[in-house]
Design a protein that fits this description.
6 helices, mainly alpha, 5% strand
């Protein structure tokens, strides 16, 4: 699955309906570094499915991501604006609105899936 805050609830619902025994979240990052916005999005997904997995062997990284999301969810735009990539986009006039666009939680009710050939399809 491919998820961000813009399709959070659709992705979380897809996971909850299928109830996989194991769930692994992989953040995209930027080059070889972690990216704050990716951790926030992973934390949002963790928070959405937490009741179904919190009794199991939850990794500390999932707990940290969830806590980061909880601390920033009241104003996702502000949280994303603090990130390195957020600051970089805001500094460029032609891209500054992209951060606000990306902060729209549940804007798209679609589930995006990565195919074996690398294509992403949405349903």
């Amino acid at each position: 699955l491919v998820s961000a805050v813009v399709n959070l609830e659709a992705t979380a619902r897809h996971i909850r309906e299928r109830q996989p025994e194991h769930l692994l979240l992989v953040c995209g990052g930027t080059f070889e570094q972690m990216a704050y916005e990716d951790i926030l999005a992973a934390g949002a997904l963790c928070d959405s499915v937490w009741p179904h997995y919190c009794g199991g062997a939850v990794a500390d990284s999932a707990l940290v991501a969830r806590e980061m999301f909880i601390s920033g969810k009241a104003d996702l735009f502000a949280a994303l604006s603090r990130s390195r990539n957020g600051r970089r986009l805001i500094a460029r006039a032609e891209l500054s609105e992209d951060v606000r666009w990306c902060a729209r939680c549940n804007a798209f009710p679609l589930v995006a899936m990565l195919q074996a050939d690398g294509r992403v399809i949405a349903s």
